[in-house]
Amino acid sequence: MDMCSLKALEADGSPSRSLLKLIGGQGCMVGELVEFLQIMGHTDALQCLKPPGIQILVQPQSVAVITGHNLRLSCYAVGASCVQFQWFKKTEEVHNSSSPDLVFSPVRLKDAGFYICRVNCGNEYEFSNWAQVDVLDVPPRYGLVSLALEGRPRVLIQPQAQRLLVGDLLYLECGAIGRPLPQYQWYRNGVPIKKATKRKYTVKNLLPEHQGRYRCEIFCNNERTWSNEVNVVVVENPCQSETKEPRISHEISGAMECSEDDFLPVDRDHSLEKPYATDKVALLIGNLTYRNHPQLKAPMVDVYDLTNLLRQLNFKVVSLLDLTESEMRNAVEEFLSLLHKGVYGLLYYAGHGYENFGNSFMVPVDAPNPYHSGNCLCVQSILKLMQEKETGLNVFLLDMCRKRNVHDDAMPNVVLQVTANIVFGYATCQDAEAFELSSSGFTNGVFIKFLKERLLEDEKITVLLDRVAEDMGQFDPTKGKQALEIRSSLSERRSLTDPIRPRDYSDAAEAQNLLWSKAHELPESKLLDFECGVQIKMDFAAEFSNVLVIYTSIVKKSEEMLSCQAHITNLPWDLDVDPKLMNKETLEETGSFLLSGSLPHHCLYTRLSSLQKLKEELAFTVCLQVQFNSLDELVQWNMDVSIGKPLTAKLDLNRPTRKNSCQLTCFIPHSPSTSPSHSPASDRRFHSQDPCIPQQYANPYLNVCEPLHGAVGGYGDYQLFGDHTYQYENLPCSPFLNPPSIPIETSDDIDDMQNEFMNSLQLYNHS
After folding, report:
1. Using an 8 Å Cβ cutoff, are 199 and 217 in contact?
2. Catalytic residue positions?
3. Per-residue pLDDT tens for 79-138?
4. What are 41's strand-pairing partners?
5. What is 55-136's CATH number, 3.90.1150.10, 1.10.10.60, 2.60.40.10, 2.120.10.30?
6. Measured distance CA(252)–CA(255) in Å, rounded
7. Are strands 563-569 and 619-627 parallel, antiparallel or unpaired?
8. Contact 25, 7 (CB under 8 A)
9. Alpha-carbon distances of 733 from 232, 401, 405, rounded to whole Å
10. Closest CA to 280 of 143, 81, 130, 123
11. Which element (helix H / strand E) includes 305?
12. pTM of the predicted model as reported, rounded to 2 decimal places
């Protein structure tokens, strides 16, 4: 080392490096510099010149989580010899925390704080970076159990509107989960408030100038979102109320007192009061892996992003990928069972589709080629059943083509009620295709790219969609080819941000809500103890309501073991999992691209999709293989594990579809629970054979359906490369065309995919 010249150091903007380069230019050796520093007593500088001993490879990361969830802080390091770990909470040692992972199962409020890990190697030690754990005390709410920690922050605690007196204390709170720890900035009347960068914002001794509109901006990595905007009213006279105004005030013994006579009634326009929902329920379906039609990409990312945003608006969301006809019908039936008077219902579909005679049809993944109305689900029939529930708002977002299906001559007779609570948002115009953007990675379609930028705005839903349409109209790659179409009978200012005021439900409805909620619970983490002394940690994450990721890590093993690995085997045949995609070291290798930034590293991952096909409990074998030295063969131990029916497997969507028992709807030719003819590709014969009586679609309002994904036939597919347009014949329409807007994990890999996507936009026309 003494003969090493300092000229090897490059000056890259650091004053210290520049000084070292200057000294090196004078012929000074490292050994000489060490002697000078020892004489001068610069021990800190000497530490920098020491050869590396301990190298911390993975630093613990600050994070915000919900009480009751599981959390893991990780610190991985290497050294000249065996390294040891000890975790601290501030200055106090954490009991039983001598492994690289500090696990909280589950997280409690008292676990909030700052953590650091000390790594020992012989007589040397190094400290990791500090990691802050922020724990949000959020009451149990539908769907939260399936939230994963991701780069995009998710707002779970919203600020509340307040009416206060001068001199009172203002307390506003906003809470979001995310990894790394979300950052905050409060605004009043659209202007940032100085030094208001915490989750909680307080003002002592309120003054009239503190009155205004408040909201908080939350950002995590490059992702940003907003809380709801709330009004803070500051009243100088304590006698003022929301329904009466003071006329006379009396000051007695220095205190302000008001009598009943001091109030005059104030006329209020009750029509301006904000509407509310008795509950909010959303069903999101993304079909991309078609058996007989072109595969799609965007539905997966679109459903994922929309799920995250709707949950911030307190929707009960179920997100499903790749459903067959019977599974789609059963999912719709479960969705309808949650709708009651005053409930806001939202249905989003992304996949192939078409529109005939004003009726829109969603195409399942097992639809034959060509398909007919008997193989598909009619959106208008679903709407009719929703209307019978007396819902407060019905929103349909259809991200598919709306071309006519020349192979289907049926004209369904669906008679809808005349109500003022229906909104249709079509990703494309009538008799037009919807597009998805082609890139090497996973990106949003055009519709969701712009919708997700505005979905959290506190605006009437039709106003919000109008703005999305304007944004889409400025997007050059699809200008003149795809435009958002909005159909609405909405007469009130209904918004997706409207508050929820629950009402009393029947015992049957409560039981159904409980079942639906349980269908989003993740299995509990497991610690598997093997006879050889090895301990395996098994954790779970939900990518969608029917997609589960299992990841395992070795918590404890003997130092005598040269190698040790645990693999999952013997999964049920129902799931049809490719063994080559199991037990991978990265999530991307399993086909999961949306959780890559939210789960711990140094694990083995297995992704299980299509959980709705699971007929029995999910049972499998964990195979542990150990090698004690390089000359020994592998020694194997097996352990059988059962985790019950996870996520939507509890809903039994694979059951034979039941006919609707309601006499008012069972004669609808294309109701979600009946179908006019047998589907050649369906798994079970359950369709009604009643003939469909052709009848001209008579209700002008009901022309809200537009051909989403094109029908199979001679509709042109376009692929755009720069200024050139190529047309392909006889390709089925692919669903929506949404540019990049993935509120998924914001890992570097995802960002790179996004950049590549933007640099090489290619559009595929969906027929």
Report:
1. no
2. 352, 401
3. 877 889 999 998 899 988 888 999 887 888 899 999 999 999 888 888 999 999 999 887
4. none
5. 2.60.40.10
6. 5
7. antiparallel
8. yes
9. 50, 6, 11
10. 143
11. helix 298-312
12. 0.59
